[in-house]
Design goal:
about 500 residues, Helix Hairpins, Immunoglobulin-like, Cytochrome Bc1 Complex, Chain D, domain 2, 4 domains, five-stranded mixed sheet, binds heme C, binds copper (II) ion
Length: about 500
């Protein structure tokens, strides 16, 4: 009997230890800050206790029988098999248990997947190795990468003790900001390889696959900062693309949106800079955007990432280098949309005159700006009031040739539409319809213009964010390129008239 008492005392001590460990969230799931995450936690606890109950029942009976009916006491094994009653009982009981587990589990799954009736949508794109966030309702658009302090400390031989860096590898330069208590729908995709977006406090994670759209939603109950990471091994810097979500009260969020839109409207600093200024500022741009692949000294990684030091491209024709940096090539990302004209000019000048290179030339921000896709909406879609008044008059009577419309339209398409409808117009069904062969694009032009002016579902309204010339160009482009050949055009003047008739620039929200 003494032994049995000791055994029980041991079990009770273990249970107490588990409770303490749980208090520090070292052992159990976290409850998180959303209804879904709490429901998942409750489900997990329910299933856990069912399992504990079954475990105690089964093992309790087993140990009791072994102990009390042992041979040394004179017990003899019963000799029987095929007992119908027992077989029916051990089929029915587990069935009932399984059903009682499946019902709450299914409820939680259905809740988790229901993205309907959301208040806003955010498109999340995984890149090697940063996250891109596009707010589909207000045009806010930015990239979020590892913060500078972590990035410095993580370099080999940095000499910095990671323990001294706050939120080491869990901090970013620009967090994803969301309002509390709003149903936020996320659409996930990736630009290169599979990534996965995971913030434990929200209760779920979702894969971001190139060429596919996955959906999820959240509604954060409590303002605060929530951290997570990419959880799909996505290449050498997989460990360096954390996620930070900052949930704010609605008024704070509105202020943040206003500030962010204003900042992005400012655009790049296009004034000329001295050679030395370009080089010295370029060093910082290089450290932040290029060292992950090309190395701090520009030596690269043989076989994977070419050296910048002594590279024939960098020491050769500057236009070729600009082309690669702006538009990418193979594993080299396109930076045209990720960096501003001044940063691009600085980093290009830097690579040519540092890291062991001495070409001696430079490029100014102004020259780069000309090569970027139409400034409207390249980094952040312009806000409604961005439309310049003098331009308006000009657009009322402008007439462009089809070729002019097409070439302008191509650039407008690349910067405003390709992120959803894709570069060749193939779309990402079922969420983003293809424009190639689309019934709308091949149908009545007025219906297409109308849809684009006013938007529909997740398709943004471009009536206030594109000027008449860009708007007419991109309509013409979609109808005569991307595999379509309707062979009609629309002139800026026609769009201008429609825009003038629209209800005065809507004050959204
Ligand atoms: C994700 C990794 C990655 C990042 C980040 C990256 N590059 Fe590259 N880069 C590459 C790869 C891969 C190539 C080789 C492309 C090819 O030729 O197929 C390359 C090629 C180049 C070349 C041509 C070199 C040659 O000799 O062929 C230049 C110039 C260049 N990168 C500059 C930059 C600059 C400037 C930045 C930062 C703004 C940058 N890269 C960031 C991966 C990267
Ligand atoms: C944020 C993602 C997004 C962007 C950016 C976007 N669209 Fe769309 N677009 C959609 C969605 C979603 C639909 C489907 C709308 C629906 O039917 O509910 C759509 C539908 C369309 C359709 C109708 C296609 C059909 O067959 O139903 C056309 C035409 C179109 N978009 C053109 C454009 C053009 C031109 C641009 C750039 C100026 C653009 N879109 C930018 C998401 C987007
Ligand atoms: Cu990743």
């Amino acid at each position: 009997m003494n032994k049995t008492k000791q055994l029980f005392a041991g079990l009770i001590l273990m249970a107490l230890a588990l409770r303490t460990a749980q208090a520090d969230y070292t052992l159990n799931l976290m409850k998180g800050v959303t209804k879904v995450s709490n429901d998942i936690y409750d489900l997990h606890m329910l299933i856990l206790w069912i399992c504990v109950f079954i475990g105690i029942g089964v093992f309790g009976t087993m140990f009791y029988s072994i102990y009390h009916h042992r041979k040394s006491k004179g017990h003899k094994a019963e000799q029987f098999h095929e007992n119908t009653t027992v077989e029916i009982i051990w089929t029915i009981i587990p069935t009932v248990i399984l059903i009682s587990m499946a019902i709450p589990a299914t409820k939680a799954m259905v809740e988790l997947d229901d993205v309907q009736d959301s208040d806003m949508s955010i498109k999340v794109t995984g890149h090697q190795w940063k996250w891109e966030y596009e707010y589909l309702d207000n045009g806010v658009h930015f990239f979020s990468s590892l913060d500078e302090a972590s990035n410095k400390a993580r370099q080999i031989d940095s000499g910095i003790d990671p323990r001294t860096v706050p939120h080491y590898l869990l901090n970013v330069d620009r967090p994803l900001v969301v309002p509390v208590k709003k149903k936020i729908r996320f659409v996930f995709t990736a630009a290169d390889v599979i990534h996965s977006w995971w913030v434990p406090d929200l209760g779920w994670k979702k894969d971001a696959n190139p060429g596919f759209i996955n959906e999820a939603w959240t509604s954060v109950d409590k303002a605060g900062t929530y951290r997570g990471q990419c959880t799909e091994i996505c290449g050498r810097d997989h460990a360096f693309m954390p996620i930070v979500v900052v949930a704010m009260e609605q008024p704070d969020y509105d202020a943040w949106v206003k500030k962010t839109v204003e900042e992005s409207k400012k655009g790049p600093d296009l004034s000329d800079q001295s050679h030395d200024e370009l080089v010295s500022k370029g060093a910082a741009v290089f450290a932040k955007n290029c060292v992950t692949c090309h190395g701090a000294e520009g030596k690269g990684v043989p076989g994977a990432f070419p050296a910048i030091a002594g590279s024939p491209v960098v020491t050769g024709d500057i236009d070729k280098q600009i082309d690669i940096v702006l538009h990418g090539k193979g594993g080299m990302p396109a930076f045209a949309k990720m960096l501003k004209a001044d940063e691009l000019a600085q980093v290009i000048t830097y690579t040519r005159n540092s890291l062991g290179n001495k070409v001696g030339d430079e490029i100014q921000p102004k020259a780069i700006q000309k090569l970027l896709p139409q400034a409207s909406g390249a980094a952040t879609s312009a806000a409604p009031e961005a439309k310049a008044a003098p331009q308006e008059k000009a657009e009322a009577n402008i007439v462009l040739s089809k070729d002019e419309l097409m070439s302008k339209g191509k650039a407008v398409y690349a910067s405003n539409c390709a992120s959803c409808h894709q570069a060749e117009g193939q779309g990402m069904p079922p969420t983003f319809p293809p424009l190639t062969g689309s019934a709308v694009v091949k149908g009545n032009i007025n219906a297409q213009v109308n849809l684009m002016l006013n938007g529909k579902g997740m398709m943004p309204a471009f009536g206030a964010t594109l000027n008449a010339t860009d708007f007419a160009s991109v309509v013409t482009y979609t109808r005569n390129a991307l595999g379509n050949s309707v062979n009609d055009v629309i002139q800026p003047s026609a769009i201008h008239t429609l825009q003038a008739a629209m209800p005065a620039a809507k004050d959204d929200e």
